[in-house]
Specification:
With 336 residues, the chain is of the alpha/beta class. It has a single domain, classed as Aldolase class I (TIM Barrel, Alpha-Beta Barrel). The protein has helices spanning 33-36, 43-53, 75-85, 123-130, 134-147, 166-174, 190-193, 209-224, 246-249, 290-293, 303-308, and strands spanning 2-5, 11-17, 59-65, 89-94, 113-117, 152-158, 180-185, 196-197, 200-201, 229-233, 236-237, 251-255, 260-262, 275-278, 281-284, 324-325, 331-334. Strands 1-17-10-7-6-5-4-3-2-12-13-14-15 form a 13-stranded mixed beta sheet. Helix 6 runs parallel beside helix 8. It is globular, with a radius of gyration of 19 Å. It binds iron/sulfur cluster (2 copies). Residues 22, 24-26, 29, 31, 66-68, 95, 117 line the site of one iron/sulfur cluster (SF4).
Length: 336
């Protein structure tokens, strides 16, 4: 069954980057230390920040990420604190290296999902994007987590270098103990966002609209047939489809170690964050910031896409766009 996941007005999602350091150097890494700092947040600060965002009444979900969050020695303690604070779901995103023996310090009762990142169906394909040895390590990590009773999911970031490996990935997934499969589109942020060529931003990694539409939805259908729930970004909207900006209608917070809090992930490379932790207090920042941009109503859809990657949009002869770019947070979900 395929459905577009509408933005929930009654749930809060917190994407907490608890550090920016990582043992890998993926080609498409979106972490930008100049903008996000390189601090390892102490437990007391993480707890204070989370407490101020833990919503009473409505659903609240937290995703711990980095950098590589398992490199943070206090990850188990902040997971346990988040559970006690009453977060409804807790996810850890990891590259699979599972540092500090993390799986023996947390339990499946405390963590809803451990989400692994893999960008190819073989060592050969994955490791040239994510680093030598990362494929074998990630697969071993998935199996180990499953053996210990954790729910596991897998994130595959589609770029021009691996889009045609998605079909082979589907075959690999059939034999992996994975409950959910997330297909992401290569970002416009961090390392991948700065690889400019004369033909446009990041031309070596970005996928075309045609390739995306030809490859991603059929593979998603195929994977769903194995009983795995698949989620992928909608990316393109027809002119008659409604556009919504999550910055205006959803309750998402992307927190970084230097205290910046964004409502939109596409804004993360710029100092336009709408909120900021100053000490223990979450304050609004001065205009002009991302929250002013969200109100700009343009025929192309997402205003940040138009600013960062205008070459992604095509126009008719009369100047009207052929399609709208959906909010990067709008997802399609397929379940068996
Ligand atoms: S994408 Fe993730 S795993 Fe890869 S270098 Fe960046 S933080 Fe590390
Ligand atoms: S990606 Fe675009 S549409 Fe989505 S929150 Fe950001 S500015 Fe709004």
């Amino acid at each position: 069954m395929k459905r577009t996941v509408s933005f929930s007005k009654n749930s809060r999602n917190i994407f907490f980057h608890i550090l920016t350091n990582c043992n890998l150097k993926c080609k498409h890494c979106y972490i930008n230390k100049e903008q996000h700092g390189d601090t390892l947040l102490p437990l007391s600060v993480m707890e204070t920040w989370l407490r101020s965002l833990c919503k009473q009444g409505d659903e609240a979900n937290i995703i711990f990420l980095g950098g590589e969050p398992t490199m943070h020695p206090e990850l188990p303690q902040i997971v346990i604190s988040a559970k006690r604070m009453g977060f409804d779901s807790i996810t850890i995103d990891t590259n699979g290296y599972l540092f500090h023996n993390i799986l023996s310090k947390i339990t499946p009762e405390e963590v809803d999902f451990i989400s692994f990142s893999l960008d190819g169906p073989t060592s050969e394909k994955n490791d040239c994007l994510r680093g030598k040895g990362s494929f074998e390590t990630c697969i071993a990590g998935i199996r180990q987590a499953n053996k210990k009773g954790f729910n596991t999911s897998l994130i595959y970031t589609v770029s021009r270098q691996n889009i045609f490996d998605l079909e082979a990935m589907a075959i690999l997934l059939k034999d992996l103990p994975i409950d959910r499969f997330f297909i992401q589109v290569i970002g416009l942020r961090g390392r991948s966002g700065t690889r400019r060529t004369e033909t446009g931003r990041n031309a070596t990694l970005q996928v075309s609209r045609e390739d995306w539409q030809r490859v991603v939805p059929p593979v998603a259908e195929q994977v769903a047939e194995y009983g795995i729930t698949v989620t992928y970004p909608k990316v393109y909207l027809k002119q008659n489809e409604d556009f919504e900006c999550a910055g205006l209608v959803a309750d998402n917070y992307f927190i970084f170690p230097n205290g910046r809090v964004y409502r939109c992930p596409l804004c993360e490379d710029f100092p336009v964050h709408g909120r900021e932790f100053q000490g223990d207090t979450l304050s609004k920042t001065e205009p002009i910031n991302e929250e002013d941009l969200f109100h700009l109503n343009i025929p192309e859809g997402c205003v940040m896409n138009k600013i960062i990657q205008p070459e992604n949009i095509r126009y008719h002869h009369d100047g009207t766009p052929m399609y709208k770019i959906a909010c990067c947070l709008l997802k399609e979900e397929i379940s068996a």
